Amino acid sequence: MSGPDEHKSAAAGGFTAADEPFALFARWLADAETSEPNDPNAMALATVDADGLPNVRMVLLKGVDGADATPRGFVFYTNLESAKGRELIAAQKAALCFHWKSLRRQVRVRGLVSSVSGMEADAYFASRARGSRLGAWASAQSRPLESRFALEKAVAAVTARYPIGEIPRPPHWSGFRITPLEIEFWHDRPFRLHDRLVFRRGDAAVPWGTQRLYP
User: Fold this and answer.
1) Within-domain flag for 62
2) Is residue 165 part of a domain?
3) Tens of pLDDT along 177-210?
4) Which domain holds residue 15?
């Protein structure tokens, strides 16, 4: 049973141990969409390379979903031949971090990596701006680039190849779903006595356990 402090925290935009993590994340993301000036769906994606050296970069969340036998997860898209694409495919594990400065909130995610279906990737690719679709063909992401002119020349060549009509999804471009095994919610409190609540599970088929953490 949750006490009065739990209910007060929830009413103030915090959380209780009774929360379901995906529903809580959806509420926090909705709050961020009204308060963050740029990219409320931005998240830091952490991977490791073949030598075990960590890598982190910002990407954009494109959905928190799942269907039928696919567990719910955090979905984003990228060039499969980029550094992050290669590392995700090799390790099949990754971590995410959302930080909404205006709300003084953070969410950390750790979990298992899987590829989205071809149908999912096709549908999202078709929804992108035409320039972004052309860029997906033109950019050899993460590979050395001799000059800005070389990139512009590659974009011009792709534009000439697809002057009108549909632009097919490149075979090297798709998406990933991070199915979380751990989601931690952090909410700033005075004197650095922050609220931290972590949801954990052994795999996606079992219920969540919860644990409050010292700040």
Assistant:
1) yes
2) no
3) 999 999 999 999 999 999 999 999 999 989 999 9
4) 4-120+171-212
CA atoms within 13 A on the CB side of 128: 24
CA distance 91 to 52: 10
Q: What is the CATH number of the domain that holds 38?
A: 2.30.110.10
The two three-digit tokens of residue 102, written as one number:
């205006």
Give the C-alpha separation, 199 to 20, whole Å: 9
Determine the Cα–Cα distance for residues 157 and 145; give it in Å rounded to an integer: 16
Asked whether the beta carbons of 56 and 87 are under 8 A apart, the reply is no
* CA nearest neighbour of 79 among 57, 112, 95: 57
Number of domains in the chain: 1
Q: Where are the beta strands (DSSP E) in the chain?
A: 42-48, 54-60, 63-65, 73-79, 93-100, 105-115, 173-187, 195-200, 209-212
| Rounded alpha-carbon distances, angstroms, from residue 193 to 17, 107, 187 | 18, 17, 9
Which structure tokens are listed for 193? 């006595």
Whole-structure pTM value: 0.89
Asked whether residue 159 is assigned to any structural domain, the reply reads: no
- DSSP class of 129: -
pLDDT score at 39: 96
